[in-house]
């Protein structure tokens, strides 16, 4: 029986190690050769959990192409800075200085002697409409990769976390063969299953492919993004809805529709398994409670919009009703009883037990193995820093399933053996040649 291929992996924009954990959880064997990031806090968390050996605190674009070539990595995992593509940013795309390193990687991809056989890229929803996405596709096509683009939210795999992200999976087919399922040439809203055989696929049977996901694993299809030229042509008319009746070609996966699914509550786990503390009297809760000033400042709907993700420990209470009652109690500034009225309103709002999620709860929701004792923060990392580096990280569970799919070849005999054999032979030779290089 043939031994499993051990993949050689480069982790770009490594942060606190989300891609590392995702690869470990994917079921594939391999090693992280180098993990690149310039954020000191993130690197401290990474080193705390994985050691310093792989870390490279250097600007990616400052490292010569020859170094990456010598690594002869099978796999590139990357999550470039999202600020150039977010709604809250300037959305300057490739013109943003923070996109420079990503553009450098795309440039050398076309010039390398030993480019990776597999690439996984993660970014925010919105990246698919950027010029950086066009450059990504142009580089992949020019370098001989087959690719599939996706929009996936953790809700689809049962995790109560609304966080839709863009992903691109790419394989160098001349070396490792094709994906298990032929890429659609469109943006899809499901992770293709590894269970469906070629006969089912050719007959259009997607029943196995759709069996586990909350939205039926069939949400949306953005044919307008199948080529860079088409993307540029359609960019001004893209719809954020799942269905656009006037032009079905502009459909794409939409998180609001998934959230509106009446069956969602039956398919997504409850928060209980992710919650660290539930007792409002617990002394450890003080640092996470919503400040009184914030509670009094907003009405319910403005509060929900302005304060981010909040956990209500007194779950039996109706949040909106309590806020309405408190709003009616609040005293007017010129009222003689203003202080007394505000005190009553505040007491009412405090009874909800509203707090921020702890950093460990956020990490659990993002798939980091805290309960298994494999992930923790250094004692020197402040609470603010913990929230910040988590906010820049990935969902480990989602990415692990994507890596599992990306690195699995078709199980149709000779093609798979030849593709994996070539990759394995190449990887073994590279490891012997570069045994000391990864220790730098």
TrEMBL record:
SUPFAM superfamilies in alphabetical order: S-adenosyl-L-methionine-dependent methyltransferases (SSF53335)
Enzyme Commission numbers on file: 2.1.1.204
GO biological process, alphabetically ordered: methylation
Biased composition (Gly residues): 420-432
Top EC class of this enzyme: transferase
Active site: 82
InterPro entries (UniProt xref): C5-MTase, C5_MeTfrase, C5_meth_CS, SAM-dependent_MTases_sf
Extent of Basic and acidic residues compositional bias: 208-220
One Pfam family linked to the record: DNA_methylase
Polar residues bias spans: 196-207
Region (Disordered): 196-254, 411-440
One GO cellular component term noted in the UniProt record for this chain: nucleus
PROSITE patterns: C5_MTASE_2, SAM_MT_C5
Record GO terms (molecular function): methyltransferase activity
Keywords, ordered alphabetically: Methyltransferase, S-adenosyl-L-methionine, Transferase
NCBIfam families: dcm
Family statement drawn from the similarity comment of this UniProt entry: Belongs to the class I-like SAM-binding methyltransferase superfamily. C5-methyltransferase family.
Name this polypeptide is given: tRNA (cytosine(38)-C(5))-methyltransferase
């Amino acid at each position: 029986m043939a031994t499993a291929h051990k993949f050689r992996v480069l982790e770009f924009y490594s942060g606190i190690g989300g891609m590392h954990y995702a690869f470990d959880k994917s079921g594939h064997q391999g090693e992280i050769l180098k993990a690149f990031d310039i954020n000191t806090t993130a690197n401290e968390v990474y080193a705390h959990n994985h050691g310093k050996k792989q870390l490279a605190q250097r600007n990616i674009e400052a490292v010569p192409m020859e170094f990456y070539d010598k690594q002869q990595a099978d796999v590139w995992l990357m999550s470039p800075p999202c600020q150039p593509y977010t709604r809250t940013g300037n959305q300057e795309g490739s013109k943003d200085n923070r996109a420079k390193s990503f553009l450098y990687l795309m440039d050398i991809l076309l010039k390398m002697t030993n480019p990776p056989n597999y690439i996984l890229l993660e970014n925010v929803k919105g990246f698919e409409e950027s010029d950086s996405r066009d450059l990504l596709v142009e580089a992949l096509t020019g370098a001989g990769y087959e690719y599939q683009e996706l929009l996936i939210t953790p809700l689809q795999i049962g995790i109560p976390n609304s966080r839709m992200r863009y992903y691109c999976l790419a394989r160098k087919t001349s070396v490792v063969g094709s994906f298990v399922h032929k890429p659609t040439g469109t943006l899809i809203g499901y992770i293709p299953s590894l269970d469906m055989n070629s006969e089912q696929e050719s007959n259009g049977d997607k029943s196995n492919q759709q069996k586990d996901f909350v939205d039926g694993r069939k949400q949306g299809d953005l044919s307008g993004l199948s080529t860079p030229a088409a993307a540029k042509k359609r960019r001004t008319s893209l719809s954020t809805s799942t269905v656009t009746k006037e032009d079905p070609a502009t459909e794409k996966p939409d998180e609001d529709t998934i959230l509106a699914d009446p069956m969602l509550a039956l398919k997504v786990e409850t928060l209980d398994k992710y919650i660290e503390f539930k007792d409002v009297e617990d002394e450890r809760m003080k640092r996470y409670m919503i400040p009184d000033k914030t509670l009094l400042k907003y009405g319910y709907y403005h509060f929900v919009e302005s304060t981010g993700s909040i956990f209500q420990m007194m779950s039996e209470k109706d949040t909106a009703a309590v806020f309405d009652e408190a709003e009616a109690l609040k005293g007017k500034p010129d009222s003689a009883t203003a202080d007394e009225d505000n005190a009553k309103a505040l007491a009412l709002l405090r009874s909800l037990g509203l707090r921020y999620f702890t950093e460990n709860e956020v990490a659990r929701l993002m798939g980091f193995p805290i309960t298994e004792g494999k992930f923790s923060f250094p004692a020197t990392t402040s609470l603010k820093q913990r929230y910040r580096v988590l906010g820049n990280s990935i969902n480990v569970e989602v990415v692990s399933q994507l890596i599992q799919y990306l690195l699995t070849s078709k199980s149709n005999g000779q093609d798979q053996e030849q593709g994996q054999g070539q990759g394995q032979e190449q990887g073994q030779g590279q490891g012997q040649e570069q045994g000391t290089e990864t220790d730098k």
